[in-house]
Amino acid sequence: MKPVDDYFLNQKEPYQSIMLYVRSVILNTLPEVEERYSYKIPFYNCHKKPLIYLNVLKGTNYVDVAFVQGILLEKQFPILKNDNNRKQVRSIQLKSLEDLNHANFVELLLEASNMLSKTKKAWFV
């Protein structure tokens, strides 16, 4: 079993179900995405650069669906929040599956991938 699979299977509910659903949407929406296990969390890379990662931050009660270049997307997608005063990462905080608008999330993934394909590096700040 891959380390990323272990990560998901070791999550408590409802986090496990949320993460597995988000993972399936990412993999089905972006067939070119590469799933990796980095910094002890799942990362999804497009165009050889990190696009998105999933995490449950200590002291929180939600899954953090974090977009590496989220600062460039937050005006177009107001669902993205600046949690923890991060410089460029913006995220969606999911406490339940009902918190995720599937169509909006797919649109966000496609736009984030398209934007990432045009940049030289993912971490620019």
Automatic annotation (TrEMBL):
Domain YdhG-like: from-to ranges: 16-112
Gene3D superfamilies recorded: 3.90.1150.200
InterPro entries tied to this protein: YdhG-like (IPR014922)
Pfam families referenced in this protein's UniProt entry, alphabetically: DUF1801
Protein name (database record): DUF1801 domain-containing protein
The organism of origin for this protein: Mariniflexile soesokkakense
